[in-house]
Amino acid sequence: MTHRKSTTVLVAGGAGFLGSHLCDALLARGDRVIALDSFLTGRRRNLRHLERDPRFDLVEHDVVRPLPAALRRQTFDRVYNLACAASPPHYQADPEHTLLTSVLGTRHLLLAAEASGARFFQASTSEVYGDPEVHPQPEGYWGHVNPTGPRACYDEGKRAGETLCYDYARAGRVAVRVARIFNTYGPRMRADDGRVVSNVVCQALAGDAITVYGDGSQTRSFCYVADLIEGIIRLSLHEAPGLAVSPVNLGNPVELTVSDLVARVLAMTGSASPVVTRPLPTDDPRRRRPDIARAKELLGWSPAVPLEQGLKATILWFADEAEDGPRGAVVSEERRAALV
Ligand code: NAD
Ligand code: UDP
């Protein structure tokens, strides 16, 4: 039996939806994990099951500020940057902080990686493509972002974050891996996250009106969290000559309209919730679908979990486990049997 040398990794944003799943996956592969989070949108309860694990630590810190001295003394093998609110209502609540999180936060984490000689993983986003004029979106597309609109604090912050990563790599300072993550969903999303999957599932379970923004014809492509985390791990461990690997789209190419998503969730939950329309938010992208040819070729990765299966897991999680889940949510035994 061969034993791998234990590695130490830093996960910024580790208490969030994706970050907490990433901590689980890294611990499962034998890494020692230090999670760092300001709890802006993340929660301690996402990591509660790890509290007694001697290979896990959690540090409260806002990455807009330089890392605490204790962390600067640590040596890391890899640094993962997932710190940034990802839901439009949350990232727009304090746009200046969102922008600084992606710019100053990425810089502080790159400096930590440089000091350790660690590899750096950046959670970028499909939002770098803005409201895309090219469909589906390959990594070579430079995007169509409104730099002054309400989404800009996030989109432009993430674009600048990528810029910093490649500047550090070009200067020979840090080896970087950048994932452009497309809409991802699953257990541990917050009921009040504000993104479409958690909103629609919680509204359906509670019997509340389902809010469709605009006419519901806009499209997204939804990736289940387990698939996404597998892609992040593969990309972050990918060996390549030179310090930089081009950005890699990670997402599920199955595209559907928001109305389609609502119809599926209503059918699966058996909910009688009415559907109401709300104004389409400013600069809401019309279409979004990843071209994942690069991820397939480079990493041998493509999503394995079909939407129905991922939605089942998400619906049952909100019905059974989410402490802030919809009050009065009941999934009947009959419906549950049909779901699983
Ligand atoms: P999330 O809001 O659940 O997680 C973000 C985490 O970062 C939270 O724990 C939050 O408290 C923390 N955080 C925010 N600002 C911080 C700061 N200044 N200092 C320290 N911690 C801070 O969102 P998520 O869906 O888990 O997203 C994780 C990352 O993946 C984000 O960087 C996001 O931009 C990116 N991403 C996610 C998606 C998606 O669909 N989930 C899509 C594209 C990109
Ligand atoms: N959306 C919606 N109802 C909601 C929340 C979102 O119709 O309750 C729409 C939103 O306008 C967008 C799509 O669903 O067109 C995806 O929104 P989300 O915030 O999940 O992600 P993003 O817009 O960042 O891709």
Would you mind describing this structure in some detail?
The protein is α/β, with parallel strands linked by helices. The chain folds into two domains: 8-185 and 223-250, NAD(P)-binding Rossmann-like Domain (Rossmann fold, 3-Layer(aba) Sandwich); 196-220 and 254-285 and 304-338, UDP-galactose 4-epimerase, domain 1, CATH 3.90.25.10. 37% of the residues lie in helices and 16% in strands. It has helices at 17-28, 69-72, 88-91, 95-116, 152-170, 196-206, 225-237, 258-269, 293-299, 307-320, 333-339, and strands at 8-12, 32-37, 56-60, 78-81, 119-125, 175-181, 184-185, 210-213, 219-221, 223-224, 248-250, 255-257, 275-278. The strands form four sheets. The chain has a seven-stranded parallel beta sheet with strand order 3-2-1-4-5-6-11, sandwiched between helices. A two-stranded parallel ribbon has the order 7-10. Strands 8-13 form a two-stranded parallel ribbon. Strand 1 (8-12), helix 1 and strand 2 (32-37) form a beta-alpha-beta unit. The longest helix is centred in the first third of the chain and has 22 residues, at 95-116. It is globular and about 55 Å long. Nicotinamide-adenine-dinucleotide binds next to helix 1, helix 4 and strand 5.
Low confidence ranges: none
The computed structural class is alpha/beta
Q: What compounds are bound to the protein?
A: nicotinamide-adenine-dinucleotide, uridine-5'-diphosphate
Instruction: Report helical residue fraction.
Output: 25-40%
**Average of pLDDT:** 95
| CATH arch. level architecture of the largest domain | 3-Layer(aba) Sandwich
Name the overall outline: globular
Largest pleated sheet: 7 strands, parallel
Number of strands: 13
Spatial ordering of strands, largest sheet: 3-2-1-4-5-6-11
For the record, the count of structural domains works out to 2
In CATH, the homologous superfamily of the largest domain goes by the name NAD(P)-binding Rossmann-like Domain
Compute the gyration radius: what is it? 20 Å
End-to-end CA span: 38 Å
Can you tell me the CATH class of the largest domain?
Answer: Alpha Beta
